[in-house]
Amino acid sequence: MTAWTPNPDEMIGLDGALGKIASQPYGQIMLGAIAVGLFLYGVFQVWKGKSRHMRVK
């Protein structure tokens, strides 16, 4: 948003952005789905890292 708004007083942080999403219809559900997706992506990355076999020459 900084690219469009030259006034720093009009800026909102991450908490403001998440608050705007949460106040939308189905916003709580969207935030929950995003949180679950990020968690599952983290689990996938840990699993992928543990199952990778590295050879040292």
Descriptive overview:
There is one protein chain. This protein has 57 residues and is mainly alpha-helical. The chain is 61% helix and 0% strand. The protein contains two helices and no strands. The chain has helices at 14-23, 27-51. Helix 1 (14-23) packs across helix 2. The protein starts with 13 loop residues before the first helix and ends in a 6-residue tail after the last helix. The relative contact order is 0.07.
| H/E element order | HH
Rg for CA atoms:
19 Å
Give a quick account of the main beta sheet: strands, pairing sense, barrel closure. Answer: none
Please state the structural category. mainly alpha
